[in-house]
Structures are given as C-alpha cells and as structure tokens.
Amino acid sequence: QVQLVESGGGLVQAGGSLRLSCAASGRSFSSKPMGWFRQAPGKEREFVAGINWSSSTTVYKESVKGRFTISRDNAKNTVYLQMNNLKPEDTGVYYCAADIRRPMVTSGSDYWGQGTQVTVSS
Q1: Which pLDDT tens digit goes with each residue over 49-103?
Q2: Which residue of 59, 84, 86, 122 has the fewest CB atoms within a 10 Å radius of its CB?
Q3: Exposed, middle or buried: residue 112 (CB in 10 Å: 0-12, 13-18, 19+)?
C-alpha cells in the first residue's frame, strides 16, 4: 500500500524556520514528481511547491519564493520543504503529494499524505 507520511510541522514564531519531510513507502517515486500543498483555516487547498523527478525543475507559489526551498532524495524516497522567514499567513496544514501520471503535481495528483500542522504566531 502506498503511503506518504509528513513530519516536521509545529508551532513557530514569525521569522522562524521549519523543515518538513515527506517519506513515501509502498512504491518508488524516484521517477515521479512530488510536491507540497497547504490548506489554511477556512480556505481551499493551494499549491506551495513542486519538484520534478530529477530535481532539474522546481516551481513555487509566488508568495513563498525566496523563503521556501523544495528538495528531494530519491534514494530515500523522500521530499523536503525548508521553510524560512515564516509568516502568520503560512499557517495551515501542509500536505505532501506525488503523481504517477503527470510531470508535476497538481490538485488532482494520485497520492496524498495526511498532513502536518504548521502554526506561525505573530
């Protein structure tokens, strides 16, 4: 059974940093895109960052550019999201995603984790 398990969320003050990890199991995603979405209270789930299979291409939501960095370790079947200079508006549940059909993750991607809470205080 395929599983994506996020970790690394927590409570942090504005300006602080967190590093999220997403460990996949059940199949290899070494040739597949992976990425991160988030859902703030009362809002729709939104794309945050994506990375293709080889790490040659990364894509970010405009508001996180320069602050967040997505990376992956295909040998570990794991994707990361380094989040620096966090802002209160970054608060939400962060979800890991993987796709087996497309070159990049989308809201309709095939596999999703259960999410990890990130709370940024003022």
Answers
A1: 999 999 999 999 999 999 999 999 999 999 999 999 999 999 999 999 999 999 9
A2: 122
A3: middle
